[in-house]
Amino acid sequence: MGEEMSRKPYVREVSKTTWFLRQPRYQRYMAREVTCIFIFAYTFLLICALGSLANGPDAFQGFLNALRSPLGVLFNLAVLVVTAYHSATWFNVTPQAMPIQRGEEFVPGNVIVGAHYGAWAVVSLIILIWGI
Amino acid sequence: MSERQIQLEVLRYNPETDSEPRFQTYTVPCLNEWVVLDALNYVKENLDPTLSYRWSCHMAVCGSCGMMINGEPKLGCKAFIHEYGDSIRVEPLAHFPIERDLVTVVEDFIAKLASVKPFLIPKEDKPTSAGEFKQTPAELMKFKQYTLCINCMLCYAACPQYGLVPEFVGPAAIALAHRYNQDSRDGGRDQRQEVVASDEGVWECSFVGACSEVCPKHVDPAGALQQVKVASTIDWYKEHLMPWVKK
Amino acid sequence: MEIIKTDVAIVGAGGAGLRAAIALAEADPKLRIALISKVYPMRSHTCAAEGGAAGVIKSDDSLDLHFNDTVGGGDWLCDQDAVEYFINEAPKELIQLEHWGCPWSREPDGSVAVRPFGGMKIKRTWFAADKSGFHILHTLFQTSLKYPTIQRFDEYYATDLLVDDGRCQGFTALEIRSGQMKQFQARAVIIAGGGGGRMFPFTTNGAIKTGDGMALAYRAGAPLKDMEFVQYHPTGLPNTGILLTEGCRGEGGILVNKNGRRYLQDYGMGPETPVGQPVLKTMELGPRDRLSQAFWHEQKKGNTVSTKWGDCVLLDMRHLGEKKINERLPFVRDLSISYLGMDPVKEPIPIRPVVHYMMGGIHTNINAATPLPGLFAAGECACVSINGANRLGSNSLTELLVFGRRAALSAIAHLQSGLPAGNDTALTAKAKDSEDRIRALFAKSQGTESIAGLRKEMMHTMEEGAGIYRTGEELAKTCDKIAELRQRYAGIALHDKTNVYNTDLLQALELGSMLDCAEAVAVGARDRKESRGAHQRLDFTARDDQNFLKHTLAYYHPTEPPRVDYLDVVITKSQPGVRDYSGAKK
Question: Chain B contact for C43, CB < 8 A?
Answer without folding.
Answer: yes
